[in-house]
Model the fold of this input.
Amino acid sequence: MAIQFGLNEILGEIKETRNKIAVEAKVRPATIYDMAEGKTKRIELSTIESILDVINELARNVEGLNKTYTIDDLFKYSKKDAE
Done:
């Protein structure tokens, strides 16, 4: 898959659980789980916005972490090699 998800990395940096993000962002826990596991096939832009808002709010409370997460942190694209 050319699209990789960076949610697990972000969760490790902000030291939060998938469930906490789901509750705070008001999205289904399965949505967060699927993103973290790279199983998401389709996601609404409003859902992405909610998730990033929550991640950035929680990140502000992490001592020593001076970072604002963007869609580039959540999704990473790598071109598949033609075989």
Notes: The CA atoms of residues 14 and 59 lie 5 Å apart. Strands lie at 3-5, 75-77.
